[in-house]
Amino acid sequence: MWDHEMGGFYWLVERDGTVKPDTSGNIYKFAYGNAFGIYGLAAYYEVSEDPEALELAQQAFLWFDDHAHDPAYGGYFQNLRRDGTPVPMDEIGIPPKDQNSSIHILEAFTELYHVWPDERLGDRLEEMLVVIRDTIAGEKNHLTLFSYENWEPFVALDENGARILGHPRDHVSFGHDVETAFLMLEAAEVLGIDTQPTLKRGKAMVDLALEWGWDSEKGGFYDGGAYTVDSTAIIVTGPGKIWWTQSEGLNALLLFGDLYPDDPNDYHAQFLKQWSYIDEHMIDHEWGGWYVHGVDLEPESLESDKAGQWKSAYHNGRALLNCVERLRLNE
């Protein structure tokens, strides 16, 4: 999937490696995909010590940083042409920056910094941590989904100028919030910097997700919501419970339970409730694997595919590995 002519990872290829353009015939590259390319190569190098994997990870980082980094406002542009040039918003119809690609860039740089503590990489990793923690999340303690170049939030408005609650590009994603709390802490730890500002923000993000996006009866985090103007209430606009959000919730609740065992939120108790929900409503105990959504709310998931372009063993695999390791340490 590496572009040997222009650099960077393609988004889609056929099984034989032929590049697959979009429906308009364009070949775009995305920060999100390049981040996972870097992440996978770095993780593979750590266990294999294959020098080619590290070399390609380094090459991918340098290409990505040279082309997608924003020197004016920090962070990275998500949408790129094949040559790495950022795509204007009016061409693709998507804001140039977003939290999802940003948090996975953070994750990728963290993984690469483990095996290659390069100064430039470290500077970019810390920049991403600060941007995510203090700007994309900030004092509101939840992530802005999409942003303009200067990190001004994208707000979806209808023809009358009213905010469209639960818009696909303007809502609160509880799963990303609890996942980011974990990814930010990983980044701060590998950088060797003071973790307290990051812990404070991450805890606030988990607490807010528990307050507004948690099913206190059955367990499980809802898919999404929309905060009111004064941020004192929320409308749950995505009432489903998708598998990856439950995975990240499981990991975050155990982590923060260990970090704050006496907290009034009682994260450990919520962790047990979360696992019970997953065990009862998400795991296929006959054929194995996880359903795409909790079958208590979306029973049609019983017949849905177990894997696809956007569903693999990434979120639940990582969450289970992390939880098993943490629970064994606590035995």
Task: Provide a short characterization of the protein structure.
The protein contains ten helices and six strands; from the N terminus they run βααβαβααβααββααα.
- As residue ranges, the low-confidence spans are none
- Please give the count of helices: 10
Characterize the biggest β-sheet.
2 strands, antiparallel
Percent range of helical residues: 40-55%
Portion in strands: 5-15%
Q: Mean pLDDT, rounded to whole units? A: 95
Quote the distance from N terminus to C terminus.
Answer: 43 Å
Q: Return the CATH architecture of the domain at 1-154.
A: Alpha/alpha barrel
The rounded Rg comes to 20 Å
Give me the CATH fold name of the domain at 1-154: Glycosyltransferase
Describe this entry's structure for a reader.
With 331 residues, the chain is mainly alpha-helical. It is built from 10 helices and 6 strands; from the N terminus they run βααβαβααβααββααα. Helix 5 packs parallel to helix 7 (196-213), helix 6 (174-191) runs antiparallel to helix 7 and helix 6 packs across helix 8. The radius of gyration is 20 Å and the shape is globular.
